[in-house]
C-alpha cells in the first residue's frame, strides 16, 4: 500500500462517527476530493492477516485466570465461577466445551479472553455457539474459534449481539452460520474471518439499531461455504458481511475477497456508512450492495474481478439487467435521517475488470406494505408505523414520498472504471452503468403505477455522475433496462450525466 493510502486510512479511522465535519460531509470540495481519490485507493492487499496475525502472550497476563485445554469445559466453568471483568488466558492447545450442542461460554460484563500462541476454541462440530449472552464490553483477542455449527442467520461469536465487544487479532473460521454477530459500538479489528458457512459477520440485532460499529483491518475471505442462495433461492442471506439496521458504521481498510456471494451487503434501513480504503476482489457477486438504506460515503476503494460468476449467469440466461459491482438499490441520501452526510456519495474508487460498474435501481413496486417488499413487515425510517402506508392515504404527500425507499441524491464522481473484455471474457454486456427502474404494475392500490418512478430516478431525484474516467467499451442504461445508451446519449438531455468525464474505448488498465 502506498504511503498516501496508509495516511488516508489512519485519518478515516480516527474520524469519529458523530462529527459532521469529517471528510465526506456534504460540503466537501469535489475538486479536493479528486486529488485524494486518485492517490488513496489501495493498490495491494490492505489486510492480509490470515495466518499472519500476531501471537497472543506466551505467559498469562497479570491477574488472569489460566484455562487448561486438558480439562473438559474448563473455559465455560471458570467463566461461570469468576466475577465480571475477569481476564482469561487460554493455554496453547485445543480447548473444548461440553458435549451438548448448547454448551457455550457466557461471558460477564467486561470479561476478556486472550489466547496464548496456538490456543484454539474448537466446537468439534458438536457445539452450536462459542460466546453467547448479553454481557457488555467483552474482549476476545488472539484466539482461533472454529468448528461450531450455528444455524442459518445465527452466529458463533457474540451470538446475542452484546454491546461494546472488541474482537481483535482473532481467527474465526470453518463454522456454520456467521462467524460473528454484532452489537452497538462493537469493534472488529485486524481479524481473519474465513470459510464460514454463511457470513464472516452478520450485523443484526433483534433489539433495534446497531450503532457505532467499526470494522477495520480484517481479511474476510471464502465465506458462504454452504452456498445458501442455491439452498434458498433469492434468500439474500450470503456473503462476506451482511448489515441489517446498522446506524453508523466505519468499514475501513479491509481485504474482502473470494467470498461466494456479495462482499459487503447493507440491507434494510442501514444508515450513515463510511466504506473507505478497502480492497474488494474476486467475490462471486457484487463487491458492495447498499439496499433500502440511507446516507453513505463509499470512497477510495479498489474493486477487482467481482461479480463475474453472478454477472455471467445473468447474461447466460438472457437477463439484460445490469447486475453491478456497486449496486445501490432503493437507497440514497435523505437529509431527514441524521448522518455524517445527507447524500450517498461514491468517489475516488477504482473499478477494474469487474462485471459491470455501478447501478442505481429503484423498484417501483417495492414500498411499505407491498408484496414486492422483500423486507416483509418493515417500513422506511421515515414512517415507523407501517399501517399508515395504505390506500387511500399513500397517494397523498407526505406518505406518497415517505412510504418508499428512494434512490436519490446519489453522487458518483472522480472514479476510474477500467474493463478489458479479454480479461473479463465478454463485450458490452459486462461493461454497463445503470440508472433505472421498472414499470410500476402492482399491487392494484399502488400510487406508483406506470413510468413515474422511472422518470423520477433519472430526472428529478438528484442522481448524478460526473468527473469520472472510463476505459473500455462502456455503455449506459437509463430509465428501463431495454434503453441502452452510448456515452453521447448519456451525456445529453434528458439525462445530462458524466460532465467533465473522460472516455477511452480501448480495454486494458
From TrEMBL:
It holds the Pfam family Beta_helix. Residues 159-307 form the Right handed beta helix domain. Coiled coil: none annotated. Residues 1-20 form the signal peptide. SMART domains: PbH1. InterPro entries: Beta_helix, PbH1, Pectin_lyas_fold, Pectin_lyase_fold/virulence. Keywords: Signal. This is Right handed beta helix region. It comes from Amycolatopsis saalfeldensis. The lineage of its organism: Bacteria, Bacillati, Actinomycetota, Actinomycetes, Pseudonocardiales.
Amino acid at each position: 500500500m502506498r504511503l498516501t493510502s496508509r495516511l488516508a486510512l489512519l485519518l478515516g479511522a480516527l474520524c469519529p462517527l458523530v462529527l459532521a465535519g469529517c471528510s465526506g460531509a456534504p460540503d466537501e470540495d469535489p475538486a479536493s476530493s479528486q486529488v485524494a481519490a486518485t492517490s488513496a485507493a489501495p493498490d495491494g492487499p490492505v489486510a492480509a492477516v490470515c495466518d499472519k496475525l500476531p501471537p497472543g502472550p506466551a505467559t498469562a497476563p497479570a491477574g488472569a485466570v489460566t484455562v487448561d485445554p486438558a480439562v473438559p469445559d474448563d473455559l465455560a466453568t471458570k467463566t461461570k465461577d469468576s466475577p465480571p471483568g475477569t481476564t482469561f488466558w487460554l493455554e496453547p492447545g485445543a480447548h473444548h466445551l461440553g458435549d451438548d450442542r448448547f454448551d457455550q461460554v457466557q461471558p460477564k460484563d467486561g470479561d476478556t479472553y486472550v489466547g496464548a500462541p496456538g490456543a484454539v476454541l474448537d466446537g468439534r462440530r458438536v457445539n452450536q455457539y462459542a460466546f453467547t449472552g448479553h454481557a457488555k464490553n467483552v474482549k476476545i483477542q488472539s484466539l482461533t474459534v472454529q468448528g461450531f455449527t450455528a444455524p442459518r442467520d445465527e452466529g458463533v461469536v457474540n451470538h446475542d449481539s452484546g454491546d461494546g465487544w472488541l474482537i481483535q487479532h482473532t481467527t474465526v473460521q470453518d463454522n456454520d452460520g456467521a462467524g460473528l454477530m454484532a452489537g452497538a459500538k462493537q469493534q472488529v479489528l485486524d481479524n481473519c474471518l474465513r470459510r464460514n458457512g454463511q457470513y464472516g459477520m452478520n450485523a443484526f440485532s433483534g433489539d433495534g439499531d446497531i450503532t457505532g460499529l467499526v470494522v477495520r483491518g480484517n481479511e474476510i475471505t471464502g465465506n458462504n461455504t454452504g452456498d445458501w442462495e442455491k439452498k434458498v433461492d433469492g434468500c439474500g442471506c450470503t456473503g462476506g458481511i451482511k448489515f441489517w439496521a446498522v446506524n453508523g458504521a466505519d468499514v475501513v481498510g479491509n481485504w474482502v475477497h473470494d467470498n461466494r456471494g456479495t462482499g459487503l451487503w447493507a440491507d434494510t434501513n442501514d444508515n450513515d456508512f463510511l466504506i473507505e480504503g478497502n480492497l474488494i476482489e474476486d467475490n462471486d457477486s457484487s463487491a458492495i450492495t447498499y439496499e433500502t438504506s440511507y446516507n453513505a460515503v463509499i470512497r477510495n476503494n479498489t474493486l477487482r474481478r467481482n461479480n463475474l460468476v453472478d454477472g455471467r449467469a445473468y447474461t447466460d440466461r438472457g437477463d439484460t439487467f445490469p447486475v453491478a459491482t456497486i449496486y445501490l438499490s432503493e437507497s440514497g441520501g435523505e437529509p431527514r435521517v441524521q448522518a455524517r452526510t445527507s447524500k450517498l456519495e461514491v468517489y475516488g474508487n477504482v473499478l477494474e475488470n469487474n462485471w459491470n460498474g455501478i447501478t442505481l435501481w429503484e423498484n417501483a413496486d417495492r414500498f411499505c406494505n407491498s408484496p414486492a417488499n422483500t423486507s416483509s413487515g418493515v417500513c422506511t425510517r421515515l414512517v415507523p408505523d407501517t399501517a399508515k402506508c395504505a390506500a387511500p392515504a399513500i397517494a397523498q404527500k407526505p406518505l406518497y414520498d415517505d412510504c418508499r425507499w428512494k434512490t436519490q441524491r446519489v453522487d458518483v464522481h472522480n472514479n476510474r472504471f477500467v474493463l478489458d473484455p479479454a480479461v473479463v471474457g465478454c463485450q458490452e454486456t459486462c461493461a454497463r452503468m445503470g440508472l433505472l427502474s421498472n414499470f410500476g404494475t402492482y399491487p392494484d392500490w399502488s400510487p406508483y403505477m406506470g413510468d413515474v418512478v422511472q422518470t423520477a430516478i433519472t430526472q428529478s431525484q438528484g442522481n448524478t455522475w460526473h468527473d469520472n474516467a472510463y476505459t473500455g467499451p462502456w455503455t449506459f442504461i437509463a430509465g428501463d433496462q431495454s434503453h441502452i445508451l452510448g456515452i453521447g446519449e448519456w451525456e445529453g438531455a434528458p439525462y445530462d450525466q458524466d460532465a467533465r468525464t473522460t472516455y477511452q474505448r480501448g480495454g486494458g488498465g
